[in-house]
Amino acid sequence: MGSGLAVAVLLLPLAGYGLARTGAVPEGTPIVLALLCGIFGFVLLTELGEERAPFGHSSSHLTAHTLTGERSVDLNRIATVRLLTTFSYSGPHRTLVVRDAHGVRLGITTKRARGKLRRAIEKADANAARGVPRPRVSRAARTYLGLAPGQGLVVHTVLAFLLVTTSGSLYVSIGLRLAGQ
After folding, report:
1. Which residues, 6+ apart, have CB-to-CB distance to 132 below 8 Å?
2. pTM
3. How is residue 92 annotated by DSSP?
4. Contacting residues for 81 by C-beta, under 8 A, at least 6 apart
5. Fewer C-beta neighbours within 10 Å, C or N terminus of the chain?
6. Is the link from the previous residue into 13 a cis peptide, with omega within 30 of 0?
7. Cβ neighbours of residue 165 under 8 Å, at least 6 residues apart?
8. pLDDT digits over 117-142, tens only?
9. Which residues contact 176 (CB under 8 A, 6 or more apart)?
């Protein structure tokens, strides 16, 4: 539901374009909406499932408060782990996005949570020899957790930066095109 809200915010300039075409709002409305909604929507998308304090844990679950409520991931049934990288003035911001077999998704940012996740992945990898399916963990996530050597993090960061700049540029250019500029 939260992701749907973020996507709706990102698509709001299209509604502004339709209203501007009918004369209900001034012609410059889609430009203003594209700039405001673009910034707000992209930030909202990245922050929705990210953990916030207070943090709870047990031997088999990782629980955290997020913008959309409390989420608890079952560490014994991890399905996927991927690394999400965003950028700010202070440098790259990395979030490990964990999804369990129940479909619960949580963005992990704290050192303590990363340690618990690392131990859970190591345990799952050890159990894979006994026929238990292992979670799909991206190369960048493995490198970030210290489970794999290599340059996976550098390549991931460069690709993430190119994706963010390209998608932001396309979003703004579409907003300008809709506004007739």
Report:
1. 124
2. 0.74
3. E
4. 96, 97, 98, 99, 117, 121, 135, 136, 137, 138, 141
5. N
6. no
7. none
8. 999 999 988 887 787 788 999 999 99
9. 31, 34
